[in-house]
C-alpha cells in the first residue's frame, strides 16, 4: 500500500468508528501498524454498548473504515470487528430534567450531552459553575443516568496496600515528601505484602492496588517478584501506583502480569502542576501517561479539587486531559492538607465542587471507571454515597496493616475505608453490591440486612 498522509483535521461533529481486537497484544499490534500507515488513530476506553470500560479500542474517523479494514485484513492480527460509534438522543427520556428550573445556557449544554455531542471547554465551565439547587439536581441526574448506561448499577470494590511511605520526591501537598522529617517511615516486605493480598483475596475482591511513594528501594526485580507471586497464588488483577518509572520498567511490570497503572496528573494546568510538584516536569508526566497507554495498561489518572490558586478553567482542563489521553480510571477528590508540608495551612477543597467535577467527568468521558475516592470519604462521612449518586462507580478499601496506616499520610485525618463502610455507602446510594464480595467478612453490619440487596451486576 502506498503510504499517504491521513492526518486530517477532525471536528467534534465528525462520525467515528472503533476497531476492537481479541486481546491487548493484538490491539497494540494494530495500533502500531495503523500509525505506521499514517492513519490518525487514538487508544480510548471502549465505548459503551460495544465493550467493557476496562478494555481499549482504537478510534478513528468513520470515513477511514474501509481503508483500515483492508490494512488489518492483510495481517495476522486477530480482530473482532469495526463498529460505528452510535450517538443517542435522550431529549425525550430526560424530560424531567428539562422541567427543572435551569437557565437556558445550562440547559443547552446538557442537551448537547443528551444528543452525544462533544463539549468544548467553555461548555464544561458552564456545568462546573452550577450553583442553584435545581442546576445541581439536573447535573447529578444527568451524570447518574450516563453512568447507568455506561457501567450499570454495580459498584466495583477494590483494595489498596500502601506498602511504602518512603518517597524521593518533594511535592508541596503530600505528607510523604522527602523533607517531612516528622513522619515515621516504613517498608513492607514481600511476604508482608502477600499476606495482606491473601486477606483481600478472602474478601472476594478481584483487584489489588499496590501503592507507594516513589521509592527506588523497590527495584524492578523486587516488584516483579511481588507481581508474579500475586498472579501465581491468587490470580488477581494488579494495579500498580508507584509513581514515575522508566518505560523499560513499565514494560517489564506489564509482562510480569500487572494489569493497570495509576499515575495521576493531579493538575493539567502546566503552571499549577509545576507549582505543586517542584521536582517534577509536566511534559515528562504526560509522556509517561502515553507510554502506559502504548504498553497496553488500563491507565489511571486524576486530579485534586481545591488546590491553591486553582480556577474553574483549570478544572475544565483536568477533565479534557482525561478525555484526550483516553484514561480508563479517573480518580478525582478534594485537596486535603497534610501536616508538615508547605500546604499544611491551606483550606480543604469543598464537597460540592468535587461532586460537580465527578459528574462532569462522567458526562464528558462516559464509559470509564470513576472512584468515589477515600479523600471524599475523609472530607465528608457521606461523601462516597454522594459521589456514587453523582456518577462514580468504584470504591477502594484501605488494607494497609493497621499499625502502618496512619503513617501513609498523603493527607491528614484519612478515613480508613473498610468493607463495612463500602457496603454501607453502596446501600445508601441505592446501588448494587458486587456478587464477588464475601459478605461473611462484614464486621459491623448484620449480614441479614444486606442479603435482600445482594445481587449481581
UniProtKB/TrEMBL annotation:
Domain of life: Bacteria
Cofactor (UniProt): [2Fe-2S] cluster; [4Fe-4S] cluster
GO biological process: sulfur compound biosynthetic process; water-soluble vitamin biosynthetic process
SMART domains found in the cross-reference section: BATS, Elp3
Keyword Iron-sulfur: yes
InterPro entries: Aldolase_TIM, BATS_dom, Elp3/MiaA/NifB-like_rSAM, FeFe-hyd_HydE_rSAM, HydE/PylB-like, rSAM, rSAM_sf, Se/S_carrier-like
Gene3D superfamilies associated with the record: Aldolase class I
Pfam families listed in its UniProt record: Radical_SAM (PF04055), Se_S_carrier (PF11823)
SUPFAM superfamilies the record matches: Radical SAM enzymes
Presence of the UniProt keyword Iron in the record: yes
Database matches in CDD domains: Radical_SAM
Alphabetical UniProt keywords: 4Fe-4S, Iron, Iron-sulfur, Metal-binding, S-adenosyl-L-methionine
Domain Radical SAM core: 153-373
GO molecular function: 4 iron, 4 sulfur cluster binding; metal ion binding; transferase activity
Protein name: Iron-only hydrogenase maturation protein HydE
Native source organism of the sequence: Selenihalanaerobacter shriftii
Amino acid at each position: 500500500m502506498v503510504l499517504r498522509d491521513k492526518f486530517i483535521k477532525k471536528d467534534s461533529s465528525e462520525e467515528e468508528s472503533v476497531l476492537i481486537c481479541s486481546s491487548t497484544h493484538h490491539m497494540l499490534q494494530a495500533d502500531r501498524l495503523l500509525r505506521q500507515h499514517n492513519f490518525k488513530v487514538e487508544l480510548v476506553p471502549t465505548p459503551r454498548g460495544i465493550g467493557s470500560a476496562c478494555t481499549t479500542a482504537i478510534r478513528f474517523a468513520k470515513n477511514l473504515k474501509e481503508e483500515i479494514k483492508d490494512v488489518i485484513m492483510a495481517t495476522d492480527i486477530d480482530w473482532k470487528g469495526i463498529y460505528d460509534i452510535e450517538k443517542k438522543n435522550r431529549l425525550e427520556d430526560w424530560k424531567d430534567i428539562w422541567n427543572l428550573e435551569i437557565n437556558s445556557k445550562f440547559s443547552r449544554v446538557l442537551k448537547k450531552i443528551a444528543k452525544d455531542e462533544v463539549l468544548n471547554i467553555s461548555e464544561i465551565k458552564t456545568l462546573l459553575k452550577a450553583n442553584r439547587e435545581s442546576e445541581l439536581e439536573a447535573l447529578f441526574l444527568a451524570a447518574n443516568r450516563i453512568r447507568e448506561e455506561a457501567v450499570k448499577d454495580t459498584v466495583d470494590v477494590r483494595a489498596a496496600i500502601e506498602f511504602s511511605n518512603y518517597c524521593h520526591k518533594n511535592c508541596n501537598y503530600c505528607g510523604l515528601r522527602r523533607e517531612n522529617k516528622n513522619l515515621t517511615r516504613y517498608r513492607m516486605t514481600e511476604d508482608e505484602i502477600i499476606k495482606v493480598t491473601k486477606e483481600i483475596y478472602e474478601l472476594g475482591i478481584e483487584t489489588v492496588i499496590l501503592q507507594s511513594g516513589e521509592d527506588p528501594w523497590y527495584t524492578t526485580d523486587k516488584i516483579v517478584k511481588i507481581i508474579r507471586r500475586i498472579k501465581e497464588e491468587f490470580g488477581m488483577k494488579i494495579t500498580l501506583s508507584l509513581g514515575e518509572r522508566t518505560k523499560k520498567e513499565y514494560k517489564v511490570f506489564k509482562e510480569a502480569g500487572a494489569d493497570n497503572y495509576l499515575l495521576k496528573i493531579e493538575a493539567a494546568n502546566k503552571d499549577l502542576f509545576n507549582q505543586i510538584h517542584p521536582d517534577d516536569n509536566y511534559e515528562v508526566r504526560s509522556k509517561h501517561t502515553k507510554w502506559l497507554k502504548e504498553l497496553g495498561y488500563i491507565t489511571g489518572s486524576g486530579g485534586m479539587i481545591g488546590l491553591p490558586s486553582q480556577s474553574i478553567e483549570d478544572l475544565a482542563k483536568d477533565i479534557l486531559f482525561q478525555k484526550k489521553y483516553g484514561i480508563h480510571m479517573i480518580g478525582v477528590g478534594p485537596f486535603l492538607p497534610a501536616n508538615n508540608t508547605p500546604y499544611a495551612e491551606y483550606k480543604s477543597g469543598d464537597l460540592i465542587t468535587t461532586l460537580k467535577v465527578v459528574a462532569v467527568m462522567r458526562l464528558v468521558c462516559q464509559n470509564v471507571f470513576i472512584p468515589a475516592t477515600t479523600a471524599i470519604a475523609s472530607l465528608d462521612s457521606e461523601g462516597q454515597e454522594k459521589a456514587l449518586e453523582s456518577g462514580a462507580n468504584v470504591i477502594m478499601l484501605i488494607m494497609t496493616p493497621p499499625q502502618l496506616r496512619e503513617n501513609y499520610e498523603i493527607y491528614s485525618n484519612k478515613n480508613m475505608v473498610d468493607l463495612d463502610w463500602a457496603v454501607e455507602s453502596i446501600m445508601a446510594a441505592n446501588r448494587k453490591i458486587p456478587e464477588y464480595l464475601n459478605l461473611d467478612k462484614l464486621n459491623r453490619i448484620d449480614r441479614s440486612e444486606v442479603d435482600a440487596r445482594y445481587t449481581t451486576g
